[in-house]
Task: structure prediction
Amino acid sequence: MKSQLEQWIQALGSGPLIIWGARMTGLGLVRFCRTHGLEVQGFIDSDPALANKRIAGLPCHTPAALPAILAANPGLKIIVAASTKEQAINEQLLGLGVSRDHFFNYSDYCNLFYTIDVMGTCNLKCLSCPHGAEKEEPYDRGQMPFESFQKVVDKIIAENSAVTHISLYSWGEPFLHPALPQMIDYLHQHGIAAALSSNLSIKNESLLRNVMLSDPEYLKVSLSGYFPDAYNDTHQGGDIYLVRSNLLRLRHYIDRYHLNTFVDVNYHVYNNNNRLNLQKMQELCDELGFALSQTYALVMPLERTIDKLQGRPSPSTVELEKKLLLTIEEGIAAANPDGKPGVTGTCPFLENQTIINWDLSVPVCCTTFNRGSNIVAESFLDTPLAQIESQKRQAPVCTTCTKLGLPAYNLGLHRNRWDAIAAQKPSTDLPCA
Ligand code: SF4
Ligand code: SF4
Result:
């Protein structure tokens, strides 16, 4: 029987490829294709933040450009690498007259996404995060030793030979881990792309430079403002001037060392940063050639959200909700338009995620943080993947979460409905210039 990897390579054939989806899954595919001698011509992505950018050295086109590209390249095959939008993209392709044997879904060959949370703490204390609520819910801190990391990656590959990328963050700040460059190198040695996320309020210039020299494929930078007043209010403990200077450093390293890292600034929108702050950060990203995507700030982790919805809001949740553009209840209503959360559908977090915490424990999904009943395996290394999957499907928290409509809330589904509610809310930010 052929391995997943062999089936995947055979299906792709020898012709040129274009990848629909230019974020982490697509970037992992580029590394995979380059490792196996397959030619990738570029990306398609509907996100305006990515339009006409060069990503991994390749052009990123809008979907409107696809008919002309296909007309000029009759043998071109398309790989759809956008999990939550896969079905809609398939329908779009069929509507464009692309035959079913000319496009593939990444999920047909690799339906699991792995995250290794290499660092079990953060240097900031954002209210929207368990690190900011630490006084209410203390937790153990630590970091994954490099030797454990190697064993985790080896087990992932043994259980899933078609894995193309691994994320090195969940709740922790990976740029605090001194072995981060070696971890990225280890993934690359195995043909696997590396995804990072950072607050970039990082003082260790040497580590920042060394991480960049390892050329991670994807670096998300999470922030919430351009000016100190707004940023400091929601990224507590961070320094926006340090973040901005590090964004300039990233541009410098990418240019000087000819790196391929795609920098994706993830702007957390609150009611004090959604006008002039957002405009200024967009201008900075445009100047530096980085993408900027906006996401409405949420209450995290899942345990805290459930507590609030069940009438036990923590003091930090009450404080945080004053700064949100949408309350939890409004976000749930926006994300579940049929008004019947949990009645239909499955949870993508349950279907395709495997998270490995710094201490090797495995949580139900990336939205849960607390140890205890939301841990489905005490050690990833000692637990076969099939057993982890089985344990996940029996997790009691999923029943509660689904009934409350939280999977769709955490995914931010039906974004236009969130935008409509947010547009009605007052803002304390200065007007745009
Ligand atoms: S920077 Fe990220 S991980 Fe750190 S406290 Fe803030 S939200 Fe949490
Ligand atoms: S149902 Fe909720 S807790 Fe369960 S995997 Fe999905 S998001 Fe996570």
Remarks:
- The mean pLDDT is 92.
- Residues 15-108 form a domain with the Rossmann fold fold (CATH 3.40.50.720).
- The longest strand covers residues 262-269.
